[in-house]
Design goal:
Blueprint (H helix, E strand, L loop, with lengths): L2 H11 L5 H36 L1 H6 L10 E3 L5 E3 L4 E5 L6 E7 L2 E8 L2 H23 L18 H26 L2
Length: about 180
């Protein structure tokens, strides 16, 4: 028997793959890939939860009257540990590095990046301290000078200004009429 006949007999002996079997195999492969993605996402969330627990002592020291911070983990497409409205921690591309970022009007800036929880906790501590100082500065108001009770507020010649404007308007109209009449002569 020749090689060509051997190949054709093997192909005839094997059943051709049906579309249903190919679809089934593709679904199994997709489920395996999805499982890996879900496992990676779960690992990200677990790491962010570890960091969140490490931040508990810091946020326990923040006074209750300071309402700048709203810490929590969002589990969207990219899990994030939110510190406040503009700052959050997200896992890096390798899913092992913590990246502490802040959104600004000029774009996103990276405040800290580390594999170590302690380094990120220190960066968040510095950030929280700076935000609390900014809040204190914003709340400090310069006292306005109180007006003397004896002194009555003066009206600034409202009627006199009106009368002056009226007279100047009449004079301007009279001058315009005179100019037009002399020009037409």
């Amino acid at each position: 028997m020749s090689d060509a006949q051997n190949t054709s007999s093997n192909a005839a002996g094997e059943r051709p793959m049906r579309l249903r079997d190919a679809l089934r195999q593709a679904r199994i492969e997709a489920a395996d890939r999805t499982g890996v993605v879900v496992d990676l996402r779960d690992a990200e969330v677990a790491r962010l939860e570890i960091l969140n627990e490490a931040l508990d002592p810091l946020f326990a020291q923040v006074p209750e009257r300071v309402d700048l911070f709203d810490r929590g983990i969002s589990q969207g497409g990219t899990p994030r540990l939110w510190i406040d409205v503009v700052a959050h921690v997200v896992m890096g591309r390798d899913k092992r590095i913590y990246r502490f970022v802040q959104d600004t009007r000029f774009g996103r800036i990276v405040i800290a990046e580390s594999h170590e929880v302690a380094a990120v906790v220190n960066a968040v501590t510095d950030y929280v301290a700076r935000r609390m100082i900014e809040r204190e500065h914003a709340l400090v108001a310069t006292p306005m000078a109180e007006p003397d009770v004896d002194e009555k507020p003066r009206r600034r010649g409202g009627f006199g200004m009106f009368l002056l404007g009226f007279i100047l308007g009449v004079a301007a109209l009279f001058g315009l009429a005179l100019f037009v009449s002399l020009r037409n002569l």
